[in-house]
Design a protein that fits this description.
The chain has one domain: TIM Barrel (Alpha-Beta Barrel), CATH 3.20.20. The chain has 369 residues and is of the alpha/beta class. It is globular, with a radius of gyration of 19 Å. It has an eight-stranded parallel beta barrel, surrounded by four helices. It is built from eleven helices and 14 strands.
């Protein structure tokens, strides 16, 4: 019997994945107010241990990196211990898990910052979207404080320290979040980067900060334990960046450092957290990055099983990430392997905390039993 390409094993860095079905980082806002992962999060991730690889939700590298309430951190020992309980549970269930290290940058609000300070960014351009504050209440963005050049090395070091803590917390590796309009992409986009120093202007300069983070993290934990996520031509939090050269430079630098994988978001996805729409566009991130990155290429955004199967069989991508499907189907790989129907997700429960829409989706054996 022929095994579907999507369900065949794949080597990623130090890991032998049993399938190419990836659970991407999904903001779920179920951590404690102190950023410590909860027992509910442990249950949630353990339920999904059947994924070829789990990439845990965006995890802040410092108190200043916080973008939303309910997001976990990896900047103190209590958070390390909380994540250790999660990773132990995933490993006990036979899974593999990376930590996504993240800095929201200007995509934040004073109420989410220490001492109600302004969020920070490469420039003072205000992000386009609103943000959730304490109590999950929406608030209009404020212009961030533009970072001084001499502040940047410390933020790079925050990523490196977060990487070291992630490994101590039992993660199999980590993914650098350079996508979705957060700090690294804020440096890459002209609309949010108006700097005139070595970190602004040309594509090379705008890619510099991301490349420095990649260097610092790989120096600490080794290149084969590192992934990088990019969202070329994405419009979440800021206008589309039409200059593809900045993403090309980031990807080529990551390739030279021989990191484990590059994870790209297809521009056909709406990039809106409140919409299920898929845009009709000719741009294809997987095709663009395939010749630029000499390593495992993961693609996310609007994939179906059949489309992912065809893309992997054709060598277009090596693995595919399914976000919303994993929210509603903790046993997604089993359902794919059996051609079973999928649970529908409840968007209203994505970001609101609690068990509902988080750990209460039925497993296939429950439905069939």
């Amino acid at each position: 019997m022929t095994v579907a390409a999507l369900l065949r094993p794949l080597n990623v860095g130090p890991l032998d994945l049993p399938s190419r079905v990836v659970m991407p980082a999904l903001t779920r806002m179920r951590a404690g107010s102190d950023g410590v992962p909860t027992d509910l999060m442990r249950e949630y991730y353990a339920q999904r241990a059947g994924a070829g690889l789990i990439i845990a939700e965006c995890t802040q590298v410092s108190p200043q990196a916080r973008g939303f309430p309910g997001c976990p951190g990896i900047y103190n020992e209590e958070q390390v211990a909380g994540w250790r309980r999660v990773t132990d549970a995933v490993h006990a269930a036979g899974g593999r898990i990376f930590c996504q290290v993240w800095h929201a940058g200007g995509m934040s609000h004073p109420s989410n910052q220490p001492d109600d300070a302004l969020p920070i960014g490469p420039s003072s351009q205000r992000p386009l979207m609103n943000v959730l504050t304490s109590g999950f209440k929406p608030a209009e963005m404020v212009p961030p404080r533009a970072l001084e050049t001499d502040e940047l090395p410390d933020i790079v070091a925050q990523f490196a320290r977060a990487a070291e803590r992630a490994i101590r917390a039992g993660f199999d590796g980590l993914e650098i979040h350079g996508a979705n309009g957060y700090l690294l992409e804020q440096f890459m986009k002209r609309s949010t980067n108006c700097r005139t120093d070595a970190y602004g202007g040309s594509a090379e300069n705008r890619a510099r900060f991301t490349c420095e983070v990649v260097d610092a993290v790989t120096d600490v934990v080794g290149a084969q334990s590192v992934g990088l996520r990019l969202s070329p031509w994405g419009e979440l939090n800021s206008p589309v960046e039409e200059d593809a050269a900045v993403y090309e430079m980031a990807a080529q630098h990551a390739s030279r450092r021989r990191i484990a994988y590059l994870h790209v978001i297809e521009p056909r996805s709406s990039m809106s957290p409140t919409s299920d729409a898929v845009r009709t566009v000719e741009l294809d991130a997987a095709t663009f990055f395939r010749p630029l990155f000499d390593g495992v290429l993961i693609s996310a955004g609007g994939w179906t099983f059949d489309a992912a199967e065809a893309a992997i069989a054709a060598g277009k991508v090596d693995a595919v990430a399914f976000g919303r499907l994993f929210i509603a189907n903790p046993d997604l790989v089993q359902r794919f392997s059996r051609g079973a129907p999928l649970n529908a997700y409840n968007r209203a429960s994505f970001y609101r905390g609690g068990q509902t829409g988080y750990t209460d989706y039925p497993f296939l054996e429950v439905v069939e039993g």
